[in-house]
Write a structure and sequence with these properties.
The protein is mainly alpha-helical. The chain has helices at about 1-5, 25-40, 45-50, 60-75, 90-110, 115-120, 125-135; strands at about 55, 80-85. Helix 2 packs parallel to helix 4 and helix 5 (about 90-110) packs across helix 7.
Length: about 140
Amino acid sequence: MTAFVKSIDIRYKCFYIEKKHIENSVEATGRLSLKISQFIKEHYNDFLIFDSVKIYYDNGQIEISKLLSSVFSILLPNPIFRKVMPADYKLFQAADFICTMQLVKLKLENNLFSKSEMIFFGNKHDLKQNYLNPLKKKEWE
């Protein structure tokens, strides 16, 4: 998956919140909606160059499904929503990989890296050089 993600022409943006300061799912959904909305507004013209924007989601979390449909439907003229089976879409798998690596990066930055993760990735330098830095180049700022 690492080689595939390195080879394709994509840009990504991950959105996350710290759950330890949030009391319920409504507040969490609101915070994520705000972050995504702000990003879309800041990059609105970038989205308009496409005939449509497709949102692929596996409907794993109902709150996220609702969030995506409401934010994208309100802010973009032609969003298309597709329910996917992860095994059927390489780009969906790439997105899942990118999100996983973002979580690994956050855990590393907050000293929450487990022993098993360290065994899998080797040392911090190798993790950054082989996984995190190549992904950083594809991040949509």
